[in-house]
Amino acid sequence: MADNAPLPRPQAGPITSQLGRREPDYLNGLNPEQRDAVLTIDGPLLVLAGAGTGKTRVLTTRIAHILTTKRAWPSEILSVTFTNKAAREMKDRIARFVGASVEGMPWLGTFHSISARILRRHAELVDLKSTFTILDTDDQIRLIKQLLAAENIDEKRWPARQFAGMLDAWKNRGLLPKDVPASDSGYYANGKGGKLYHDYQARLKTLNAADFGDLLLECIRLFRENPEVLAEYHAKFKYMLVDEYQDSNTAQYLWLRLLAQGKPASEANICVVGDDDQSIYGWRGAEVDNILRFETDFPGAKVIKLERNYRSTANILKAASTIIANNEGRLGKTLFTDIAEAGEPISFTQVYDSEEEARTVGEEIEQYQRQGEALNSMAILVRASFQMREFEERFITLGVNYRVVGGPRFYERKEIRDALAYLRLVAQPADDLAFERIINVPKRGLGDSTVKMLMETARHQRVPLLQAVRMMVETEDLKPKQRTTLRSLVAQFDDWAWRSESLPPYQLVEHMLEESGYMDMLAADKSVESEGRKENLKELSRSMEEFETLGGFLEHISLVMDRDSADASDAVTIMTLHSAKGLEYNTVFLPGWEDGTFPSQRSMDETGRAGLEEERRLAYVGITRGRKRVRISAAQNRRIHGLWQSAIPSRFIDELPPDAVEVTDRGSAYGGYGYGGGATSRFNKADPFESVYETPGWQRARANQSNRKGGGPLTIDGDLVARSVDLGGQSSGYALGERVFHLKFGYGEVIQIEGNKLTIDFEKAGTKKVLESFIKKG
DNA sequence: TACTGGCTAGTTTTT
DNA sequence: CTAGCCAGTA
Question: C or N terminus of chain A, fewer CB within 10 Å?
């Protein structure tokens, strides 16, 4: 963590210099609502900030205001964000207001980094040591696999990933092992889910480790079980601020509530900022309800809506607002702008296939570039990452510079994780997961059987693996070859541990990689990737230069996993809609607006109407990223899982306001079948919304369905799916005991029904949970 | 212990 | 289609 360093005492200078003025500088240029949000600092406050309405500005100015009016010291403000990027941006902006003295805002950070900080202070109260390791998903899976093996659970049938997902969901909901309802834990591995969770937690304690979920969950437990600790934080935090509140999950909500309990709810100095229309992480446990319920949680809360948009043209705002208006259960905001000119209409282009889509987008990008637009000001936002490849390929042939945001992150790359495992083991010799990772990397001739033996000893003696190695090399149990290898490995680690006292971390890692043979391994590797891997390791060492202690660096990498694209070159950005939240571009391309792709079929199948609404919010996020220009496209044909499928334009196209949209249909020119009677026809109707279900898109959707082979249930209809989900299993088209047929699994019998998910005992494939839409009556 | 073919599964991912 | 994982073989 960058702010781990001792804090400089805040300087009174810049603060007092602001006092005595009637109208501080930082209030200049704020609109009335923004100003209100900045100045209302006592009592609960909910700021509903639509896209591009100056949310971050309000948040940072508010902090600046609290500081300059001396209502609190930097260390007395708790300010929470979801991403490191947001935290960093806030720090930078506050520093600009108040001067460098704020560099030391120690409690400005992500939920996770702040929780980790608190936990390290009171680690012993939650059965950890303050040096505990933070596990990432990779370690988590490895650990779960071990537990599954110990329980003799078939990994094929009960994948570790699935259990990791369940664990995550439980922790997101703030549930300790004892709190998980039996109906929940009973499902996995025939009722062993609860026990596994319990064992998993126990294992974490012996490893002196916590996973991401634990950072919050254990913090909550700490507060609940130790009121005196909680009281300490009540006294400490005079003001609380939360960014992107719509993305908070139950655990984060509980965490905040506990910390806000120092005062009666109606007097809590808590300010949450968010936009219910940009809640796109429901599938990850985010509860939009948290923001919708704020006024109930904190009675008398003031609500301020920021609706004046400073980013986009009127046409873009109109399109976004019209689409999002189709959602129910909103707090209801409408964006508006002062800019008189409507700007370019949103364009919608239908193309023959995804290849042509990439070609078209490529051409347009080159055209805008010729007109003087920087590639940096253009972005392609896709629903799913598989859509990216086609654009990348096209840009390579065109020679257009591009940058992909997302994908495997730097710290998740294999070679980086290997290097980190070496470092972790030096910092924490009890880190068994790290040990297992590198014991045979590079290859040392220490295979499964040796590792098994070591683990056996470790378990019996109740010591970490590295310690078990020390014991084993003194016995005759190992084969001579392995014994020699292990002996020198231990000696190496002792040497590294000793060196770590004097060498700065970046030199230590270079030394270790060289000495361990890792670099030799890469040098011997003739594959294309090995060069890149070496580069990455160099980059790792470079990034470590600013850290003085190994512990400080490790904390940083486990929590601050951001992929800083330090790349300053001019390039088009390709990324998912999810990662685009919070960003803006002059020109935004939104390809792949086909029903099934976007909105994604799976979202609708799994969560029905709620899923569709979240997809719609994604559309809203996508459109509002554009400042000047938004260009939507849909392919008539797309290859999914290797086979070509014809697709109809997204239902969201039908929800766009016709007078802000311009339609072209390139697809028909290529002999593809267009839809309706000419591309623009449907937008010429007096009121395209008089019946949404009569629009060509829908008619085609319906026609498509009745033609589907097998004539399965209408899964494309959000309403129908939603109904079956909402009624909690009563409305399934299937009955318990019914014989059904699944294209892949064959015949089987329905043994459980949950909404549109059926558990079926297949004759050949065993028991599986499948979506109703994938089966038919047998 | 290390490699290679066959098989399976296949959204979104702030920490 | 294709990438990642496991099981069987050298």
Answer: C
Residues 6 or more apart whose CB falls under 8 angstroms from that of A292 comprise A276, A329, A331
Percent of chain A as helix, strand, coil, to the nearest 5: 50, 15, 35
Q: Is A746 annotated as a binding residue?
A: no
For residue A643, the cross-strand partners are A640
Instruction: Encode pLDDT of A182-228 as tens digits.
Output: 888 887 887 888 889 999 999 999 999 999 999 999 999 999 999 99
Q: Tell me how far apart the alpha carbons of residues A111 and A513 are, in angstroms, rounded to a whole number.
A: 33
Mean pLDDT calculated for residue range A619-627 = 96
SS3 state at A775: strand
Contacts with A554 (C-beta within 8 Å, 6 or more apart), sequence order: A133, A420, A423, A424, A427
Most confident range, picked from A89-98, A106-115, A328-337, A756-765: A106-115
Measured between alpha carbons, how far is A516 from A493 in angstroms, rounded to an integer? 10
What are the DSSP calls for A44-110, one per residue?
-EEEEE-TTS-HHHHHHHHHHHHHHTTSS-GGGEEEEESSHHHHHHHHHHHHHHH-GGGGG-TTEEE
C strand bases under 7 Å from protein CB: 1-2, 6-7
Q: Is A545 a catalytic residue?
A: no
Nucleotide nearest to A642 (CA to C1'): C1
Nucleotide nearest to A643 (CA to C1'): C1
Model confidence pLDDT, tens digit, residues A3-41:
333 333 333 333 333 444 567 788 888 999 999 999 999
The SS3 assignment for A371 reads: coil
- Does residue A245 contact residue A272 with C-beta atoms inside 8 Å? yes
* A562 CB burial (10 A radius; 0-12, 13-18, 19+): middle
3-state DSSP call for residue A661?
strand
Q: Which of residues 141-160 of A touch strand C (CB under 7 A)?
A: 155-156
Alpha-carbon gap, residue A98 to A73, rounded angstroms: 12
Q: Which secondary-structure segment (H or E) carries A32? A: helix A32-39
Quick one: tokens of A679? Answer: 């591309």
A194 a known binding residue? no
Q: Which residues of A278-305 are buried (b: 16+ CB within 10 A; e: fewer)?
A: bbbbbeebbbbbbbeebeebbeebbebb
Indicate the helix (H) or strand (E) that contains A762.
strand A757-762
Q: Of A291, A336, A329, A307, which Cα lies nearest the Cα of A614?
A: A329
Q: What angle do CA A608, A611, A613 make, to 5 degrees?
A: 110
The DSSP call for residue A158 is: S
pLDDT for position A278: 95
- d(Cα A572, Cα A136) in Å, to the nearest integer? 31
Question: For A614 and C2, how far is CA from C1' in angstroms?
Answer: 29
Helix axes A55-68, A32-39, angle to 10 degrees: 40
- CA distances from residue A570 to A460, A564, A676, A681 in whole angstroms, order as listed: 58, 15, 41, 39
Beta pairing partners, A767: A761
Is residue A666 within 8 Å of residue A349, measured between CB atoms? Answer: yes
